[in-house]
Every structure is written in structure tokens, then in C-alpha cells.
Amino acid sequence: MVNFTVTGLSDILNVSSGQQAVAFLSKPFLKGAFTPRIGAEWSSDRRVNYYYGVRDSEAIAGRPAYSPGQTINYFGGLKLGVPLGKLWALVGDVQYTLLGDEIQDSPIVNKKFLMRYAAGAVYRF
Ramachandran region of residue 23, left (φ > 0), alpha (ψ -120 to 50) or beta? Predict the structure, then answer.
């Protein structure tokens, strides 16, 4: 079975006043021990500007003012789970994200992609 997941987020504390929506497909294999995914993440102009924009007052030589618009990041990832008996499991996750043009064009960003890694242990009770 292929899973389709959609998530919507909004800044309720009014820090960035931005929104984000994430949609992805995932397919568990080997009873969920191996789960690849692929998807997209939309961010509103306010969210992108809050994290990647440069105000006029922050502009300096080599870092011009920049006011980005909304953008879409694309990602692919893999989750692994290794059971260690009935109560314990080791888990790992890796994700590659291709940043949207509005983020790539920011003067405070020097990458086109991000890699995220996570590892841990789970105890079920």
C-alpha cells in the first residue's frame, strides 16, 4: 500500500505570519522497516521572507536587501527501523531536499539542497 500524507501548518503565534503545506508519498516495505518517500513542501511568501529575506536595514556589502516570494522545495527520503526484540527498535532517517528558487536566490543561502540525518532508539511501553 502506498501512503499519501498532507500536512498544513500556520504560524499561530504570528512570528512570521506564514503558512506551509507538505505532501508526500511513502511506501513501507518489510513490515515498515524500510520506508522511502518523495514529496513537496510549499511555503508562503511571508514564511520564506521571514527565514531567508534580508531587510533594507540588514543589507550590507555582499548581502543586499532581498524580499522573496513563495516557493516549493522538493524532497526524497528514507526511514529505516530495526526491531531489537518486542520493546526496542533502532530507527534512522535521511532526507535530501532541493531548495526552491526563492530560497536558493537568497544572499544568506549558499546551497541548493539540504541533507538531514537522524538516528535514535525507540522503547515501546
Answer: beta
Instruction: Indicate the pTM of the whole model.
Output: 0.88
- For residue 6, the model assigns a pLDDT of 98
Per-residue pLDDT tens over the stretch 13-27: 999 999 999 999 999
CB atoms within 10 A of CB 41: 19
First to last CA, the chain: 27
Tell how strand 34-43 and strand 71-84 pair up.
antiparallel
Report the b/e string of 82-98 with b at 16+ CB within 10 A: eeeeeeebeeebebebe
Which ranges in the chain belong to alpha helices (H)?
A: 45-52, 101-104
Show Cβ contacts of residue 87 under 8 Å, excluding neighbours closer than 6 positions.
123, 124, 125
